[in-house]
Amino acid sequence: xxxxxxxxxxxxxxxxxxxxxxxxxxxxxxxxxxxxxxxxxxxxxxxxxxxxxxxxxxxxxxxxxxxxxxxxxxxxxxxxxxxxxxxxxxxxxxxxxxxxxxxxxxxxxxxxxxxxxxxxxxxxxxxxxxxxxxxxxxxxxxxxxxxxxxxxxxxxxxxxxxxxxxxxxxxxxxxxxxxxxxxxxxxxxxxxxxxxxxxxxxxxxxxxxxxxxxxxxxxxxxxxxxxxxxxxxxxxxxxxxxxxxxxxxxxxxxxxxxxxxxxxxxxxxxxxxxxxxxxxxxxxxxxxxxxxxxxxxxxxxxxxxxxxxxxxxxxxxxxxxxxxxxxxxxxxxxxxxxxxxxxxxxxxxxxxxxxxxxxxxxxxxxxxxxxxxxxxxxxxxxxxxxxxxxxxxxxxxxxxxxxxxxxxxxxxxxx
Length: 415
Fold this sequence. Notes:
- The chain has 16 helices and 11 strands.
- The relative contact order is 0.13.
- The chain folds into 3 domains: 10-170 and 240-307, Vaccinia Virus protein VP39 (Rossmann fold); 171-233; 319-408.
- The protein is an alpha/beta fold.
- The protein is globular, with a radius of gyration of 23 Å.
- The longest helix has 14 residues, at 94-107.
- The strands form 3 sheets. It has a 7-stranded mixed β-sheet, sandwiched between helices. A two-stranded antiparallel ribbon has the order 8-11. Strands 9-10 form a two-stranded antiparallel ribbon.
- Helix 8 (192-204) packs across helix 10.
């Protein structure tokens, strides 16, 4: 007797990705280019809570699930940014997993971490948890029942762990949805013929046509790879959200919203200034985000962290807590060691002389650690800098605010 698929859309979605292995990023020898801090567990946790995750029992590796890994782009970064971790990467498409295995082999990711790549549904991973971090980017919105997928992932989270999700947003996909419906009405299909005719659509529409202009100005480069074009315009199963439905979706699995992983997008200062910005700042966070959604119809996706219950937040406003904290340099920096860096978001960042000195002291103190960025330093207050306490506190707070110095609470809890 053949077992029914865990999700009704699984067979057709699996076949689609076998035809168009996604994402279509090229394979290369050596580590992936740059970094994505959302796939570095230490950095992601610090961005969400203000502090590093609690230390694991000695000898127990970090456990990561990449749920819906596709061709392994995310898995590759997870392996390189979390050396020594145990990673389970699953996907329903055997074709994409062949690419993922080759990607990890060529990049050396399979030597940076212990990686299992398996042809499995994220709905059928009972007994595999708990995981310290779960990554599921662009996956749940392709299930017929996304809520079932979210509940399945929630059940695999370790206490205090984070789940990182990426889901489509209604507003920024207005033109995409209409293009999808038009191609469906024309019966082009979701194979090679659909790809040919889909690309032809955007060359035959009048130059001033909104759908053509939107594609050419915003998505043409992203859709250069056939797999990426097909994923955007020909996918057989897709759901998108607005903020109200997004938070209802989160609540359906009894999870806590732990923050956007692109918080700058949801900052009203990106769109407003002066009196209007002051009025926006006076609103509660949810209303601020709703305002941004209403004012920016180009937001095409939501990316965010979830946790089981509200994770403890560390603001480091207490001097004693900060002095007792142990530090680690953020791995997701470009140009280290030096004062002219690119930060986690690849934005220019100039360190002060004191900032450089403190980071170097943290690195030297933690150099005996086993991870690529060094181990945790001695408590900041015990670093051999010879500074007055006020100077040390000011420098540490600046570096922590820049997400350059990642901190773990010591004997005194942060406030």
